[in-house]
């Protein structure tokens, strides 16, 4: 086996990844497909932590547009992340991958409370750890939760799983001449207002010298190639 560039990763997935072709609800086939990719990475010897969004189940903007309280909308989103986390946990454990869901909001009947030392211990024992319920606070995105948890557990990298092979200077679907960046620095991402992660997450990664790798998770070879140090996607550091 070739030497691994990253030995502990935080994998950030959007909720839409679970929604199948429609992007809504939880598609069991998609959950199983994601689980198989995570298992492959785990079998390489990589310690895997994850944060999952909830856009397939709830979009707070829908409520805000109707006058809903922002905190209420955000807490509903946190509950959605727990549903996705449990679906992925089930898919992983059916593949014999030991998995723990840890929640930022106490839900003892279904998940462990988030304690960072316990999370690190799970990773050291080879378990996949899924961090649910965001940061536990409204007004923060799951991107920020990913940056925060990655910093706490001393991850080597945050990997943002997307359906494109990196960051472009324009929408590659609309502009065939769009340029893909192989490498960017944090300030450039902020100044260009590139829609990679929200500014709070980017700033948190910058302050903690935590690299961000944007890649196409649905390219069956991209993730494993990146973990071995091959040039894949866009690296922000």
If you had to describe this structure to a student in words, what would you say it looks like?
The chain is built from 8 helices and 11 strands. It has 237 residues and is an alpha/beta fold. The chain has one domain: Acetylglutamate kinase-like (Carbamate kinase). α1 links the parallel β1 and β2. It is globular and about 50 Å long. The mean pLDDT is 94.
Please tag this protein with its features.
single chain, 11 strands, 8 helices, 237 residues, globular, alpha/beta, two-stranded antiparallel ribbon, Carbamate kinase
Helix content: 25-40%
Q: Give the full name of the CATH homologous superfamily.
A: Acetylglutamate kinase-like
Distance between the termini: 27 Å
Number of strands: 11
The tally of helices reads: 8
Broad shape: globular
The CATH architecture category equals 3-Layer(aba) Sandwich
Structural class, by secondary structure, is: alpha/beta
- Write down the CATH topology: Carbamate kinase
Largest sheet: 9 strands, mixed
Q: Could you tell me the strand content as a percent range?
A: 15-25%
- In terms of per-residue confidence, which ranges show pLDDT below 50 for 5 or more consecutive residues? none
User: CATH first level: which class?
Assistant: Alpha Beta
SSE inventory with pairings:
Blueprint (H helix, E strand, L loop, with lengths): L7 E6 L14 H16 L3 E6 L7 H6 L4 H24 L5 E5 L8 E2 L2 H9 L3 E5 L9 H11 L4 E6 L4 E2 L11 E2 L1 E2 L1 H7 L6 H9 L4 E5 L5 H6 L6 E3 L1
Parallel strand pairs: 1-2, 1-6, 2-5, 3-4, 3-5, 6-10, 9-11
Antiparallel strand pairs: 7-8, 10-11
Helix pairs in contact: 1-3, 5-7, 6-7
């Amino acid at each position: 086996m070739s030497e691994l560039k990253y030995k502990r990763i935080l994998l950030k997935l959007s909720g839409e990844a679970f929604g199948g072709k429609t992007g809504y609800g939880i598609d069991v086939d998609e959950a199983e497909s994601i689980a198989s990719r995570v298992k492959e990475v785990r079998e390489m010897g990589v310690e895997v932590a994850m944060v999952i969004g909830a856009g397939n189940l709830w979009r707070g903007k829908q409520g805000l547009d109707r006058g809903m309280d922002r905190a209420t909308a955000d807490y509903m989103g946190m509950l959605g992340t727990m549903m996705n986390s449990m679906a992925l946990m089930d898919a992983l454990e059916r593949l014999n991958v030991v998995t723990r869901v840890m929640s930022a909001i106490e839900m003892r009947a279904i998940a462990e409370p988030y304690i960072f030392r316990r999370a690190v211990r799970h990773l050291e024992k080879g378990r996949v750890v899924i961090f649910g319920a965001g940061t536990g606070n409204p007004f923060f995105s799951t991107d920020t939760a990913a940056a925060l948890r990655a910093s706490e557990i001393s991850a080597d990298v945050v990997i943002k799983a997307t359906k494109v092979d990196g960051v472009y200077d324009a929408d590659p679907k609309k502009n065939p001449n769009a340029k893909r960046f192989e490498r960017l620095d944090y300030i450039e991402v902020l100044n260009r207002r590139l829609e990679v992660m929200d500014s709070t997450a980017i700033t948190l990664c910058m302050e903690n010298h935590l690299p961000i790798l944007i890649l196409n998770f649905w390219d069956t070879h991209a993730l494993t190639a990146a973990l071995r140090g091959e040039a894949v996607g866009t690296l922000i550091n």
